[in-house]
Amino acid sequence: MITFVGDFQCKLDGKGRFVLPAAFKKVLNEKVEERLVVRKDLFESCLVLFPYSEWEQELNRIRTKLNIYNREHSRFLRDFFKGSVELSMDANGRLLVPKRLLDLVGVDRDVVLMGVDNKIELWDLELYDSQVVNSDDLGGLAEKILGNLNGLNE
User: Which long-range contacts (CB under 8 A, 24 or more apart) does 123-129 make?
Assistant: First the structure.
């Protein structure tokens, strides 16, 4: 299983390329991952980068819940794949994100790459800074989501 931890500020060059932080490269190298898939996040204004093996696991989870002969399911699948792009690192360890995806989430030059379990989120720096949850809010969310596991806190 792949786990990315940490957040790193980066700058995109004029072509939309960035160098993947060493901590993330190390995780990919340990798992011999050379390809990633990037797409817009379903809920937030950021891009999500999946190592290819994690992308395939995500697709397998989706496939088990969909019937391609159901019009709504088919539309979801089409929209889910829309804008998804496979990426590979160049010889200098850079990834090139298509401009249309960067524009979709308002990314210009300064970005934050944030490890979130098995994926990496790519945020515009200003938007990321405005989305940061303070510790009181995080504690409240933890209590709400995790505080009543298995009826222990009833």
Answer: 123/46, 124/45, 124/46, 125/9, 127/45, 127/46, 128/7, 128/46
CATH number for 103: 3.40.1550.20
Task: Say what the alpha-carbon torsion angle 94, 40, 122, 35 is, to the nearest 10 degrees.
Answer: -30
Confidence of residue 61 (pLDDT cuts 50, 70, 90): very high
The 3 state secondary structure assigned to 54-115 is HHHHHHHHHHCCCCCCCHHHHHHHHHHHCCCEEEECCCCCEEECCHHHHHHCCCCCEEEEEE
Residue position matching structure tokens 């696991």: 57
Return the pLDDT at 91: 87
- One-letter amino acid at 65 equals K
What DSSP state is assigned to residue 42? Answer: S
Tell me, what's the pLDDT at 32? 85
Domain count, the chain: 1
Separation of alpha carbons 13 and 5, rounded Å: 24
User: Which residues form the domain of 76?
Assistant: 4-147
Residue 36 CA neighbour count, 13 Å, CB half: 28
**Is the confidence at residue 154, as pLDDT, over 60?**
no
